[in-house]
């Protein structure tokens, strides 16, 4: 992917890591500006992920047509180096995985999926803490990525990719948990049981090879830990743990007492990170006596000033500011500006006012671009309901916002809900006589989600029904036709 340089920040007088990332040029030799814009956008989204287990991102940009990230310099050893150099004690393997789960829990809450979790992206520091590297890099560099389902784009490292990533390019929080299961299995056994002679062979192994129980390969692995790894390695996303928090709770019991790990973890002295964590870990650990209630002070008689009156020009100014922020890919700030103007405007003008609706549409779109899919889903759903009341359920914007709501749910791994919404949307579009191009594309998206959800039977039926229709519409050489054929060929055959 690139190379990391040791650097020095002269202005702030501190060491940094500078990650240069190789990018392909367009056929005419020019740099891919779209990729650069996507990389900057993903870097900004990732920089919002504040967690002690994630290196801070200080800057990003381009230099001589190369992309770069300036990041916190981490002192430590990668898990890939650990695997090359030593046998990892069982409690430390569990402790590393548990810390990764704490990072994933925070990321998944913010609709961020790593997509490329592997030993090379995990660093064990001398104080025993773990850092998770390269959030957002894989999806930023994927060709044709749209951040809604990454359909048809296999993003990640073949040896650690979940089956749904291999088959449909579909990712969710459960895809990260699968990759964590592969890493944990490798830390405990010393080998990646899915690695093949080629990347394609590795990908096929994730689809068709049943995982081997750990205790057949390492006798001192507790039975409960073996069961947890097998749970993480389930082929269907819905059969894996529901969240990183669930996995974290299961792992804690296997790493309560960590043995010495000389050469990698310095157990001597009081490291500041362990001191800090030692206090925080006591929060909520045991019930505390309730303190004496504070004396009730008389209510203040000072009047609260009324909110500033709404002016019609406020919406126009907010949209202008948001437009400038969007031009710089500062989507989160643009959303804050629009949301701040919407509340008083809605109170003054009502939810059906055309200007209010226009700003709400812009807010929903910018929330989606910012990666805030849960808020975006709510906005799209509300917009669809308001516009269906005003313009009728068959209005083009109503159908578009219903599709976007489903895409938001798919982006955060709520596949069952997304499929239900897309199925009902397809029924309505057929009833309304929407043109074939749109319904065919919707059927293709449904099939891709079914593949990614780990339901090959259902996906196979959808794809089999879809193939002759898109062949008749576009011809046998159309990219969508070729993709459907390839997906059908990749599905496991029923016995």
TrEMBL record:
PROSITE patterns: PROTEIN_KINASE_DOM, PROTEIN_KINASE_ST
Region (Disordered): 284-312
Pfam families: Pkinase
EC number(s) on file: 2.7.11.1
Keyword Nucleotide-binding among record annotations: yes
Stored Gene3D superfamilies: Phosphorylase Kinase, domain 1, Tetratricopeptide repeat domain, Transferase(Phosphotransferase) domain 1
CDD domains membership: STKc_PknB_like
Every Protein kinase domain range: 1-252
InterPro entries in the record: Kinase-like_dom_sf (IPR011009), Prot_kinase_dom (IPR000719), Ser/Thr_kinase_AS (IPR008271), TPR-like_helical_dom_sf (IPR011990)
MF term (GO), any: protein serine/threonine kinase activity
UniProt KW DNA-binding keyword: no
Keyword annotations: ATP-binding, Kinase, Nucleotide-binding, Serine/threonine-protein kinase, Transferase
Protein name in UniProt: non-specific serine/threonine protein kinase
Source organism: Herbidospora galbida
